[in-house]
User: Which sequence fits this backbone?
């Protein structure tokens, strides 16, 4: 049985997530009071497999009932009921924009500023986020992209309990660390092609940058050590029940060094038989500002 608890910030996409899970064949319940979660789980586990995929949305709309969440999670663990937590997140700026566009009030600040409600909600949900098996940042996602990501993590292709989806993500530190990254590696210690006029306009997807970045002894040693670390961690994450691993590789702007190394790590993990994808979050941010080649 796959038992998924969907939670996260209001406005981050929980409604879209639960609709996507429902389309994948999950039995879905929205806004279930945490006090009822244990009884509901017991009933589902007693169906002898007739209900084998369940998703519950539990969030601060439950008011004072939300405080019972951790007690219910403790009970599920004691009874050996396996569960996963999916946490939906987004930046404050994006959440405020979504609330203004929908003209909705934040549930924790019905008479006050939206941002105050968001800050209060983040504090309440910190512990739940820490316990989450999967964190999805929807700040830059369209509904279809969220739907596709939900499908990759919770769809039929992810039914094997030993499967782990690895996403290697390049980013620029000046644009912020990805909130859904499980591991973050800083490659700003490597020489920066940005300061070489004939290389500046290229990206890590170009051979010129790849050859430059990977040509240093320090780069080769770093990649070797990182590959060894990931190969050690991956089976242990699988054993712990993790379904998705986001590995962030960051440089200053997210265009040169991090992209080249992300591509290399992606190829190595793929050749080792892992289910892996790659994404270059900030590769075009400097292009927008300076008109570089994409």
Assistant:
């Amino acid at each position: 049985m796959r038992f998924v608890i969907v939670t996260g910030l209001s406005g981050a996409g929980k409604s879209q997530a639960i609709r996507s899970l429902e389309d994948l064949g999950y039995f879905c319940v929205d806004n279930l009071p945490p006090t009822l979660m244990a009884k509901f789980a017991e009933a589902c586990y007693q169906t002898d497999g007739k209900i084998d995929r369940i998703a519950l949305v539990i969030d601060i709309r439950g008011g004072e009932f939300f405080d019972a969440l951790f007690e219910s999670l403790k009970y599920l663990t004691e009874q050996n009921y396996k569960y996963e937590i999916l946490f939906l997140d987004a930046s404050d700026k994006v959440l405020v924009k979504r609330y203004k566009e929908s003209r909705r009030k934040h549930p924790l600040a019905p008479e006050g500023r939206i941002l105050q409600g968001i800050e209060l909600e983040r504090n309440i949900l910190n512990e739940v986020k820490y316990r989450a098996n999967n964190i999805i940042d929807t700040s830059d996602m369209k509904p279809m992209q969220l739907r596709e990501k939900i499908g990759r993590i919770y769809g039929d292709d992810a039914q094997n309990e030993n499967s782990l989806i690895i996403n290697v993500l390049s980013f620029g530190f000046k644009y912020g660390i990805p909130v859904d990254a499980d591991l973050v590696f800083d490659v700003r210690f490597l020489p920066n092609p940005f300061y070489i006029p004939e290389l500046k306009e290229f990206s890590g997807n170009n051979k010129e940058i790849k050859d430059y970045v990977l040509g240093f002894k320090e780069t080769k040693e770093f990649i070797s050590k990182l590959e060894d670390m990931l190969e050690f961690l991956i089976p242990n994450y699988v054993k712990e029940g993790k379904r998705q691993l986001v590995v962030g590789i960051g440089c200053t702007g997210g265009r040169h060094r991090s992209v080249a190394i992300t591509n290399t790590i992606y190829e190595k993990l793929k050749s080792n038989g892992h289910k892996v994808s790659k994404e270059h979050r900030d590769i075009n941010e400097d292009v927008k500002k300076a008109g570089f080649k994409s």
Remarks:
- The chain is about 40% helix and 20% strand.
- Residues 2-158 form a domain with the Rossmann fold fold (CATH 3.40.50.300).
- The CA atoms of residues 126 and 247 lie 21 Å apart.
